[in-house]
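Following up on my earlier message about S-adenosylmethionine. Here are the inputs again, as you asked, copied directly from the submission form:
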Amino acid sequence: MVGHYPVMLQEVIDALALEGKDIIVDGTFGGGGYTRAILESSNASVIAIDRDPEAIARSQAIKDDFGDRFSITENTFSNIKDVVAEKNIPSVDGIVFDIGVSSFQIDTPERGFSFMHQGDLDMRMSKEGITAKQILEDYSEEQLAVIFKELGEERHSRLIARKIKEHIEEGNEFKTTLDLANFIDRTIKGKKKIHPATRIFQALRIEVNQELEELKSAIDESLKLLNVGGRLVIVSFHSLEDRIVKEKFIEVAGKRKHVNKYQKQKDILPTDKPTYQNLSSRVLVPSDEEVKENVRSRSAKMRIIERIA
Ligand SMILES: C[S@@+](CC[C@H](N)C(=O)[O-])C[C@H]1O[C@@H](n2cnc3c(N)ncnc32)[C@H](O)[C@@H]1O
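Thanks, got it. Here's what our run produced:
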């Protein structure tokens, strides 16, 4: 298995503006790519979080290299406030989230994230809670159709949900990733640009790990934890997540207004002094070189917000 290639690494380091910063939270440790780069390129300490026990197990090398400047907690990043509070730290100078699954997770067939490899239909990053297989069995046809449509943006959501439930009612099981992937492939007729299981796997993964709820809570808590001058940097990988980040940043920082020569100054300036400044009114994406080198980076989107008051 190859390691995880940290996506938009230099852009993330630049965005955190580490000069003079003391404490940074890496909310998605993964393979430790961001954490190591932060520790190597600054004097800051890193508080890392990951919900996957296998990610925690991989962190020893960084502990050995950086000692007390590094700590890691197995938890969900929506609990960032408690993780930081446990260290008696009231606020931090930077927070980064690299949302989604790591290559370690996708490339380990037994974790069940990939429809390309045979593995249990699991998909739990934390290795606890409800599995993807249980969701197919426990949710109603209507509930499945809703998650396939809303979390997978799947056009055939109702058909696939109905066929899955019929298959289970006939006494069959979706034990493995390939049981499900091949079943969807047989169910969807016509031309297929991407593997027809792509969107269903995305929907199930988001539901199993409650990824959108996690992201919303994490942004709210992170904004409150930042010191003035501290930045929150989020790299996400699909439009549902990026929309949440974009809308929240606009909500708390306000939209940069387009100024035209007929507007009076008082119409342009916000009446209240804002607490946050959105540093990415345009979303940032990886360079062509990076996408060539690591095709998994192709859908990455990065946004930055700074606490200014
Ligand atoms: C894309 S990887 C991060 C890679 C990392 N930036 C690096 O350079 O190696 C995402 C990691 O975040 C973790 N993760 C995803 N959602 C999480 C959540 N809600 N709470 C905590 N960890 C989460 C996953 O377990 C995975 O290890």
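One observation from looking it over: The two ends are 45 Å apart (CA to CA). Hope that helps, and feel free to reply on this thread.
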